[in-house]
Target: Rho crystallin
Amino acid sequence: MNSPMISPSAEKHRIPLNDGNSIPLLGLGTYSKPQKTPKGTCKESVKLAIDIGYRHIDGAFVYLNEDEVGEAIKEKIAEGKIKREDIFYCGKLWSTCHPPELVRPTLEKTLKTLQLDYVDLYIIELPLAFQPGDRFYPMDENGKYIYHKTDLCATWEVREKCKDAGLTKSIGVSNFNRRQLEMILNKPGLKYKPVSNQVECHPYFTQPKLLEFCKQHDIVIVGYSPLGTCRDESWVNVSSPPLLEDSLLNSIGKKYQKTAAQIALRFNISEGWSSSQELHPGRIKENFQIFDFKLTDAEMKDIELLNKNVRYVELLIWSDHPEFPFLDEY
Model:
């Protein structure tokens, strides 16, 4: 269960992917509410993260801040702090861009915004397709979301071509359940299987069955919301208590002189998951300081027992979509 001590150097804490590339264990997620985040916050946070040692940056077209991420990377390269190949950038294909003819132009738009020649990982953000167009969240006059017929295999085929064209080094998925992963894995003529599945993962929601399935198929789990998530009732299940107030995580933290957040992140990477924490400028440094200790086997087992099998990120607003992933057992 317990992994050997992981080196604190940025170069060492990586997980191999099934296509020969590798992903850093700890990532900086760049999601923040555009209307509540002052311009420049993301850029400064990414620059700070790079200085601290982060090399995995998780972003998305739909976050509306990839321009700031790109500027931060560019400035740090110009300073000589990093080379482009030191950075692992994960971008995401949004749900209005699933039709095959939109996949490559959307990725090219992302690259132009980032001022990069390629991304390291390009994932399908959700297995749900929405009506293509200029609106990220298309709705009819009654406020009902307008969905689009999903053909995940057709979308995947174009992404394989994007990899062949060098626009992305690796391709993966996010929020896919077992059935949706099997749809890709069993696709006739499959050239590249997903290297990763980005899903909610933390001590209150460990997803053992999905994790075991992914492990069998050499698909790396990238955990989002590893510290729980914000308490926004419009899209978050707030019936589950805040993860970072958990008494066990806090008591183990006292033993190691670490925070509950550091214990939760250390648990995730000790399970062999890559984790992408949300953008929080005040915690960027603290959350990277998890490579100088390791949890005992007994502590790992105790934390595993915290699993409530309850999501924070339920996405119930889209539960009537034919491809909604969270109705299946896993």
Remarks:
- The chain has one domain: 14-325.
- Residues 14 and 23 are 5 Å apart (CA to CA).
